[in-house]
Amino acid sequence: MKKFVNKVNAKIMEKAVMAQTLLLSQRGEGFVDTAIKILMAVVIGALVLGGLYALFGETVLPTLKQRIIDMFNYGN
Fold this sequence. Notes:
Keywords: Membrane, Transmembrane, Transmembrane helix. Pfam families: DUF6133. By secondary structure, the chain is an all-alpha fold. It has one domain (about 1-70). Helix content is about 85%, strand content about 0%. It has two helices and no strands. It has helices at about 1-25, 30-70. The longest helix has about 40 residues, at about 30-70.
């Protein structure tokens, strides 16, 4: 029985030291850092997609449409 109590006591001490080490640790990433990175990626992605949509909607597609019409306009 004494052996069992010593094993349990050793495990408890091991877990307590591990918890103390983790709590005192200064390394790693927090949840706020990760959330800010995700938010930045979403905002930058939205800006890039908005810019591409504006570029294709106002510049590329009308020019492309006119070129296709001119290419198939055999009568003129």
